[in-house]
């Protein structure tokens, strides 16, 4: 089993699929679940990063598999679900995490080219993936966590599509909870605040320096005055996926350091 610094083992012999599991919150979640005994399936469109994540998990004694998927393409989503079905007889955990963020203000119409790709990846692809994985999820009962965002509750100029999607995921989570309860499937959401992930520092000229700057940044928009590490969100996700949360479904857990007011990131 992978080295586990948290001392909890809650997912022995469980199979978990994480979209966008090659980086950021998805990667941290894959590491956490594998450290607690799960066989993680990293479903991602970045083969290089995904294979590196799988290799690192395996080197530390964990179990991991990579399945390629482009959530913007229905055929790719269906093929990924089929590949999971061919490799595994059941699925206990699904983390719908992958998303893209593009900016564009309403007034100047700069948002128009962003609508299709953002909604395809961050909403339609999630629902389609869940639909085609349901036969596996129904086998032994399961838990699903959808990644929303504080942006879905606050709204931000120039990011309305992303934030509208994240708001919609709160409603989607409740709908899934209602529709899947008869199969022994719980569905919850996590709404992170500003997290230090590749989405924020990956495009910088010096990503490592930008990451360090974010980690040391003091902010005024939350009580804790700092940004979060992906591992802190992964811990909340793991809780909701575990039997420790056996009577929790249809809920959204805010992991935001006590954020208030207009978002700054």
Characterize the structure shown.
It contains nine helices and seven strands. The protein is an alpha/beta fold. Strands 3-2-1-4-5-6-7 form a seven-stranded parallel β-sheet, sandwiched between helices. Helix 4 (112-137) packs parallel to helix 6 (160-180). It is globular. The model has no long low-confidence stretch (mean pLDDT 92).
Short structural description:
The protein is α/β, with parallel strands linked by helices. 44% of the residues lie in helices and 15% in strands. Helix 3 (74-87) runs parallel beside helix 4 and helix 4 packs parallel to helix 6 (160-180).
Entry keywords:
265 residues, alpha/beta, 7-stranded parallel sheet, 15% strand, globular
Q: Secondary-structure element order, as H and E? A: EHEHEHEHEHHEHHHE
* Backbone structural class: alpha/beta
- N-C termini distance: 36 Å
Number of helices: 9
* Largest sheet strand order: 3-2-1-4-5-6-7
Low-confidence stretches: none
Helix content: 40-55%
Give me the secondary-structure topology:
Layout: E1 15-19, H1 24-35, E2 39-44, H2 47-59, E3 63-68, H3 74-87, E4 93-96, H4 112-137, E5 142-147, H5 151-154, H6 160-180, E6 185-192, H7 198-201, H8 207-216, H9 230-241, E7 252-255
Helix pairs in contact: 1-9, 3-4, 4-6
């Amino acid at each position: 089993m992978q080295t586990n610094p948290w001392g909890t083992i809650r997912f022995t012999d469980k199979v978990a699929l994480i979209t966008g599991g090659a980086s950021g919150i998805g990667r941290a979640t894959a590491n956490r679940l594998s450290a607690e005994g799960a066989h993680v399936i990293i479903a991602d469109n970045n083969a290089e990063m995904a294979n590196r994540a799988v290799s690192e998990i395996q080197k530390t004694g964990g179990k991991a598999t990579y399945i390629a998927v482009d959530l913007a393409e229905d055929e790719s989503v269906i093929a990924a679900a089929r590949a999971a079905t061919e490799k595994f007889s059941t699925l206990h955990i699904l983390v719908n995490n992958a998303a893209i963020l593009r900016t564009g203000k309403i007034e100047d119409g700069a948002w128009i080219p962003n609508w299709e790709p953002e909604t395809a990846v961050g909403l339609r692809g999630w629902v389609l993936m869940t639909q085609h994985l349901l036969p596996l999820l129904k086998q032994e009962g399961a838990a699903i966590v959808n990644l929303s965002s504080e942006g879905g509750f606050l709204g931000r100029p120039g990011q309305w599509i992303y934030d509208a999607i994240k708001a919609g995921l709160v409603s989607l989570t409740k709908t899934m909870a209602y529709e899947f309860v008869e199969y022994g499937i719980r569905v919850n959401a996590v709404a992170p605040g500003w997290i230090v992930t590749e989405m924020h520092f990956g495009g910088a000229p010096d990503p490592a320096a930008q990451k360090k700057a974010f980690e040391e940044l003091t902010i005024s928009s939350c009580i804790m005055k700092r940004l979060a590490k992906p591992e802190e969100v992964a811990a909340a996700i793991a809780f909701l996926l575990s039997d420790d949360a056996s009577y929790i479904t249809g809920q959204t857990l805010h992991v935001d350091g006590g954020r208030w007011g207009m978002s700054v990131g």
